[in-house]
UniProtKB/TrEMBL annotation:
Keywords: Membrane, Transmembrane, Transmembrane helix. The chain crosses the membrane at residues 24-49. This is Uncharacterized protein.
Length: 69
């Protein structure tokens, strides 16, 4: 067995199959979405939430002056 044959066999065995690449990509996608989806969701809620609480909005729009608390 020559060095060239041995090098070819080692190089061929290191090539990953496309199915393995797809499963790694799927695992990375699931892990990243589990990590970053709550962070993005919290930022969206903080960006689009009303400036005051809903109870404060109701008492202001009721027309009658209710004492706070």
């Amino acid at each position: 067995m020559t060095f060239q044959t041995l090098a070819f066999r080692r190089a061929r065995s290191r090539v990953a199959s496309p199915a393995r690449d797809n499963s790694v990509a799927l695992i990375l996608l699931v892990m990243m979405s589990l990590v970053f989806a709550p962070v993005i969701g919290m930022h969206l809620v903080a960006a689009f939430a009303p400036a005051s609480l809903p109870s404060t909005l109701m008492t202001r729009s009721a027309g009658t002056a209710l004492p706070p608390g």
